[in-house]
Design a protein that fits this description.
homodimer, alpha/beta, Aspartate Aminotransferase, domain 2, Aspartate Aminotransferase, domain 1, 3 domains, 41% helix
Chain lengths: 531, 531
């Protein structure tokens, strides 16, 4: 508990100094932190059991301490109150999250990024890192769009254009994409200064629309709900198209939705395709979506936050065919690029697409400057592009391809195992590397096999799987995520609670997959049923 | 150049492994990175001279390398192509930026944050760090609002409320504040579902407004321009109120603006006060602004991204009097809290204020959960709250107070020096710790003293100071920022190019301040005048 640790007089300036004495202190601190990291990463459990409400009491002091605390003392607090009760994201038996443990060099680079503390919004506060970021964007742009080399020679480092925008994550990348789409569709025209200047009310009036909408699959990430809310379209302006039982958008339904929106006088700002849905890892028929978007003269955005890195694999990249026709593409760094959290990418096919969101301020971002802040939603931001730059060079195409191929292979393997076990039901064939399934207690197995589970049965199974999931979380040895599906073979009226295994940790072995299933079996046997 | 470095076959999985062999490799990499950091921090120049266009050629390859690269080889690339050409943000003679070099323990913690790689959007992907974040918010809330202890006991860790929101930076904090303000002002009412659901067009119609505006001083950060654009109000919806020659909002002008907006049927969503303007570090009369906002029934937001930490100082906190009446307050972590880039804070007086932006998704953020992602613009985000938690404990109130008091003292000292030197003109008395001044070549000094500089003279001085600033950047020994002022004693029609010194590096000594001025004098003498 922090309150039990005394405060020592300490000059705050000395913490910044870099003398021999402070260098020794810094080295000691680094040593302790290395130990903490090692202890943490060697933890066997996904999450050590503790009552979080009890733990919260250790963090209840609500006043900034008056005096200072030696860093070494603070590290003791971390050792006792924080590290043991954190989530072992890197555990090969933690299949719950879309971010994973990081390679050692990434962790070490994080210290470098903090030491440099460059501010990427402004070229003269980042210099070489500005170039790293632009090179990373160019490489990812080429991976997605494969434009001729001349385009990259022209635009990779050009101050007047950009091949993409680095954000703190996929949510901001998706928001930025729709911001661009809105401003392009309702832009300046004759005497009208455009929506960004005049606002949405005047823009819709000027262009004679009754509303403006974004159309995408039911599988869209909730960042799109945030985006349409923020942009003033309202959540009602997000029109959801049905998905099939593997989680892919139904393109016939898309065509019907587009026609209906047009018929009621709506401006279709964007059509969204998903390449790797959050729930199921499902990949939409992007080429067909691109065609519909083009015919509707709408911006085509692909949210490939999860699935983008399949493009590294010759074996799997065909599944994203059509992505090269997208006006914009989101790819997350912290997912299958294995970068630390805090970096998302928006790639823009047209190097001038970001002009519609460009801002200036007289203390920075002068016209013609190399300042990246001119075209980003965020202002000051860290040099996280270095992680991207490092990842692209150290893993390379083949490295990333091998990682994603292994993950897809293992997900198929897990699906096979689940299919073979009588007490599990596979809820969908994995479209990439996320498996959806549930536990079926013995009393329901005949109905399951006979295909006559009633709504009441599903409801009972849902409650059971929720309890199983909570028991698994409490035990803390293994972990998967939980979601509710509305598009299984049982039809849209039957919500199905699913266990969701994300297979992306390179260290997860077949034995680990078995261990997760066995842990769930053991826990299920221990649950009274019905409750 | 990267292309000249060979690629070695390397299993990507081995990069994740933590065996004895990989531990040795990781230790080697950490050693190299420690050396890189030490070399970097010992660099004397603010920015080593190089032609950035030439440097860009080393980053011109636009294809992801096919093979992998050993991390050690990649570090060689950093050593040659990145580190020497980065900005020495920590130099005590770099007075250009609002972020500074970090204490050693912060750099080391960055490695820990990456190693843990917790995802703060979701409680079961962050556990104890969720509690660190909430405690950090509670402490900062108490610093600003000083509510009774019972409020913190009730809300600090409550799932149904929040004392603030952690963002990637001040821009998103300001945006989130205005998002809350918009949604509260145009919220659900009887049969109307509210602006977030129905969109801005229907909301303004329902409430009978012709437009919705945000009112703030001319000194507002450009993040407000982004925010009103994004939120659909349009840049025209940002109404700027005149500031005086020290950069503080004129409250009489604010009252007139409010009356004018009301008269034309506009909904006043928010009044913005600035506590530490970007240009001048000026602090608005917050208490009077609060009164005007309350009378207008508008949300009162204070952007204290820069000035917030003055609250730690008993000596200076009175200058922010009235901030406790704000509905929301932005404070940046990377500025005067001395945290790494990537963390901004929005503090909310009402613990339920964020309800109007709350979202849910069935794969996370269940109602009643402790998931922080329910109420943040961003989705997945890193455990940067640990830096805040560490800073508050290690510096403590007294430590932060000492830092900010020293900065303000040194800024006053720099202002005195400038006043005493015949070849500089102080353009405004520093309101906190930013000094604005310019160089005046000898030929203009009589007019300056006689008070008869013409518009043509000012124009010539502007061009000269631009050239001087560029020469200083090119030389790279010392550095300040540059801005253009429109509110000096010379009147609003005379734009004045100013040198802008931000005094916040704890290691900057009086000798360093003199060295910056001397460097500018030397460079000025070397410039032909007129050009």
């Amino acid at each position: 508990m922090l309150s039990t640790i005394g405060h020592a007089g300490l000059s705050p300036v000395s913490l910044f100094a870099s003398s021999e004495e402070t260098a020794a202190a810094d080295t000691r601190i680094e040593g302790v932190i290395s130990d903490l990291i090692e202890e943490f990463l060697q933890g066997k459990d996904v999450a050590a059991p503790i009552d979080l409400a009890m733990l919260a009491q250790r963090f209840a002091a609500a006043e900034v301490p008056a005096g200072s605390l030696r860093p070494e003392r603070y590290l003791e607090v971390l050792r006792h109150d924080v590290m043991p009760w954190s989530n072992q994201i890197a555990s090969p038996r933690c299949l719950a999250h879309m971010n994973q443990g990081l390679p050692g060099f990434m962790r070490a680079l994080a210290q470098l990024v903090a030491a440099m503390n460059q501010n990427l919004t402004k070229a003269d506060a980042s210099r070489a890192l500005t170039l790293c970021e632009r090179q990373g964007l160019a490489m990812m742009h080429r991976l997605v769009y494969g434009c001729p080399a001349a385009l990259y020679a022209r635009h990779a480092a050009d101050c007047e254009s950009t091949l993409g925008i680095v954000t703190s994550g996929g949510t901001l990348a998706n928001l930025t994409a729709l911001w661009c789409a809105r401003n392009a569709a309702l832009g300046p025209c004759r005497d009208f200064p455009g929506v960004e200047r005049a606002g949405l009310l005047d823009a819709l009036r000027y262009y004679g629309y009754r509303e403006a909408v974004v159309i995408g699959p039911e599988s869209m990430h909730y960042s799109f709900t945030k985006a349409v809310g923020l942009l003033g379209l309202g959540e009602r302006g997000l029109v959801r198209v049905a998905i099939d039982d593997r989680g892919r958008m139904d393109v016939r339904a898309l065509r019907a939705t587009v026609a209906a929106c047009q018929a009621r006088g709506a401006c279709i700002l964007a059509v969204v395709g998903v390449a790797g849905s959050t729930d199921a890892g499902a990949i939409d028929p992007l080429a067909e979506q691109a065609e519909v978007a083009r015919a509707a003269k709408a911006h085509f955005h692909v949210d490939a936050a999860w699935g983008g890195p399949l493009l590294f694999s010759e074996k799997h990249r065909g599944r994203l065919a059509g992505i090269e026709r997208a006006d914009s593409v989101t790819i997350d760094g912290h997912k299958q690029l294995y970068l630390p959290l805090g970096i998302g990418l928006l790639l823009l096919r047209d190097p001038h697409a970001a002009r519609v969101i460009e801002k200036q301020a007289h203390y920075l971002s002068r016209p013609g400057s190399a300042d990246l802040g001119r075209r980003s939603l965020e202002g000051s931001r860290p040099g996280n592009a270095l992680f991207l730059h490092a990842g692209l060079h150290i893993f390379g195409r083949q490295g990333y391809a091998a990682l994603v191929e292994e993950s897809i292979r293992k997900a198929a393997l897990l699906a096979d195992r689940i299919r073979d076990l009588a007490d599990f039901e596979l809820l969908a064939d994995p479209d990439s590397n996320i498996a959806l399934y549930r536990y079926v207690p013995e009393a329901w197995r005949d109905q399951l096999l006979g295909g006559d589970l009633s709504a009441v049965d599903h409801e009972a199974l849902n409650r059971f799987n929720e309890r199983l999931h909570k028991a698994q979380r409490r035990a803390g040895r293994t972990y998967v995520a939980r979601t509710t599906l509305f598009h299984t073979r049982y039809g849209r009226d039957v919500p199905v609670v699913a266990l969701r295994a994300v297979i992306a940790n390179p260290l997860t072995t077949e034995r680990d997959l078995d261990a997760v299933l066995q842990d769930q079996q053991t826990l299920a046997h221990g649950l009274a049923f019905p409750a």
